[in-house]
Specification:
Pfam families: Bac_DnaA, Bac_DnaA_C, DnaA_N. The chain is of the alpha/beta class. It has four domains: 91 residues, 2-Layer Sandwich (GMP Synthetase, Chain A, domain 3), CATH 3.30.300; 198 residues, P-loop containing nucleotide triphosphate hydrolases (Rossmann fold), CATH 3.40.50.300; 73 residues, Helicase, Ruva Protein, domain 3, CATH 1.10.8.60; 91 residues, Chromosomal Replication Initiator Protein Dnaa, Chain: A (Orthogonal Bundle). It is 52% helix and 13% strand. It contains 19 helices and 13 strands. Helix 10 packs parallel to helix 12 and helix 17 packs across helix 18.
Amino acid sequence: MTKEKMEEDQEALDLAADWADISQGLRKDLGHQLHGQWIKPIQLGTFCKETGTLDLFLPTEFSANWVTDRFADRLSLAWKIARPDVKHVRILVHPGRRLPELRLGNGGDLRLPANDRDQHAQVSGGLSLGGEEFGAIGQGTVGIDPSLTFATFVTGTANVLACNAAQRMASTEKPQFSPLYLKAATGQGKTHLLHAIGHAYLSNHPRARIFYCSAERFMVEFVQALRQNQMIEFKARLRGFDLLLVDDIQFIIGKASAQEELLYTIDALLAEGKRLVFAADRAPQALDGVEPRLLSRLSMGLVADMSPADIELRRKILESKLNKYASLDVPEDVVEFLARTITRNVRELVGGLNKLIAYAQLTGQEVSLQLAEEQLTDILSANRRRITIDEIQRTVCQFYRVDRTEMSSKRRARAVVRPRQVAMYLAKVLTPRSYPEIGRKFGGRDHSTVIHAVRLIEDLRQRDADMDGDVRSLLRQLES
């Protein structure tokens, strides 16, 4: 290997390492969803040392324009900090990638490349979006994840309304509302429900035609059809579906013409009694850059909120996933630990469980609380909300209606001792404080007093349903 070649390889490795650091920083700043949607697909191009120009590639013109408009300055600044020799950052369409062609042939057949490997698919009467084909049920359910059904969706108080509304939308009876708008934060199950609706609807309506895509993909295909002067065919195909499922509708912002086409499509489908389901991470009124007429259509049916999963639902989800690992012993204290500490979203909760089980199986170790704490450090630190002993004392006093000073007083009346013991127990469960530290926050009590309180409440929770209910209620309040 020549010296020049070795230098080129080292330069490529250095660029890749810098990009990994920059990408990780942007993920923390922008959040998982925005990063995954726009930053993660970026590929490193060439770096010209003479001009100080670095090229970054994206697979489509739409995504390249989007990233240029919204993140170009941030990307440029990050690269200049990481490498002072970078003077300019260009965001371009990858020369080896192109948008999928949308060609509508005679006789109603649609032919287009299924992916970048130039495989081709032909679907009678269907529409392909970015390699995903959607045709009549007789063609199968390509694009709908076979694992995301109502049977695998775990319900609780946080999502029961959305789940029931989704099942009604997929039933044989005409729904009382349309469109259905599923509103949930990232990782709470709205995409799961979209796929489940598709499965159930196709089961109940064997000859139905379904359209499923993300809002971004809808806009990409709209622009493609517009450029190829195929808008009439695009509209006819789009409005020929019986069920329209659009995910991440918050990304429909911008492109007034695409918004207008979606608006007309909604009106046309509703006029024919067809069904529409949208999903987003915010309420319709909170969508930025969406014209008022489209907002009114999105909110005219039922807006079903999906709240973050409470601890009971998180437990149920973990237990349902563990049914797949019947041969693996996962202690109850590990399940309780995961349910109590990974609270941001269901996706992270399930991901943490999968990571823990995979590590245990690959290394031959037993699943334990210590292993969970060691291997899930990143997930746990991202989810852990700092609960203070002062906050615990205040919440317990409000719950039991005792004065805050009783947490530190010497009174031994049962009416104040039991709340004080509950507060000590919660302080040990919810904070990293040691027994002596907890004792000092409760009037300078000895650590043995705290240990006694923790063990007593643990025992009472096993024997006394009322005490267990009190502790569960307090945990929900403190962790919400």
